[in-house]
Structure formats: C-alpha cells, structure tokens
Amino acid sequence: MEKKQDRKKAVALRYNPDQGQTPKVVGTGQGTIAEQILKLAQEHDIPIHEDGDLVEILSHLDPGEDIPAETYLVVAEILAFIYQANDKAKVDTL
C-alpha cells in the first residue's frame, strides 16, 4: 500500500494572457485523480511541467482560485517555456 506522502499529486492551471488575469487553478488531485489529470493533459497535447514544491503549494487551492503572488515568478518561467515550445513546434510544422 502506498503511503499518503508518496502519492502523486497534480495541479492543472489555466491562463489566458488576452484577459490579463493571473493563472487560475482549474483542477487538483492526488493518486488516481492526479494520474487522470496527467493523462488528459497528454491526450490534449498540454505541456506538463514537474515541480514538486510548486504542486505542493498549489494543491491547497480550490479550483477557480488565482495562484498566490509568491508563485508568480515560477509560474511565469514555466509559461514562458511553454510558449517558446509552442512557437518552436509551429515553426517546425511549417
């Protein structure tokens, strides 16, 4: 039996730069729910970033909540990486 602290956790974020809002938590889960979140992300080609410390902070938020100010820099770096990867993928498919 897996220990509670060993269970996989996942947090899903949504960010729409056109609306000028901060990223919001849209889903959190651990164990089977975390695996489902990751599976859905993979099925829809949504980039996945692993950061245990960030997940630990964000997993305590309810869906619909803005991310806390102390996580802005880390999340901004992740979003920048994702946008660069998406732009590169677009160029590679042309």
Structural account:
The protein is α+β, with helices and mostly antiparallel strands and 94 residues long. It has one domain (4-93): 3-Layer(aba) Sandwich (name from scop), CATH 3.40.1690. It is built from 3 helices and 2 strands. A two-stranded antiparallel sheet has the order 1-2. The longest helix has 22 residues, at 72-93. The protein starts with 8 loop residues before the first strand and ends with a helix.
Q: Output the helix-strand order.
A: EEHHH
CATH architecture: 3-Layer(aba) Sandwich
Output the CATH class name.
Alpha Beta
Low-confidence stretches: none
How many domains, in number, for the residues?
1
Largest sheet: 2 strands, antiparallel
Helical coverage, percent range:
40-55%
The CATH topology, please? Answer: name from scop
Give the oligomer, counting copies of the same chain as homo and different chains as hetero: single chain
Number of DSSP helical runs: 3
Rg of Cα set? 14 Å
- Give the N-to-C terminal Cα separation: 49 Å
| Count of β-strands | 2
The fraction of residues assigned to DSSP E strands is 5-15%
Q: What structural class do you assign from the helix and strand content?
A: alpha+beta
Strand order of the biggest β-sheet? 1-2
What integer is the average pLDDT?
84
- Which descriptor suits the 3D outline? globular
Q: Give the CATH H-level superfamily.
A: secretion proteins EscU
Keywords:
alpha+beta; two-stranded antiparallel sheet; globular; 94 residues; 2 strands
Chain-wise SSE layout:
Blueprint: E1 9-14, E2 24-30, H1 32-43, H2 52-58, H3 72-93
Antiparallel strand pairs: 1-2
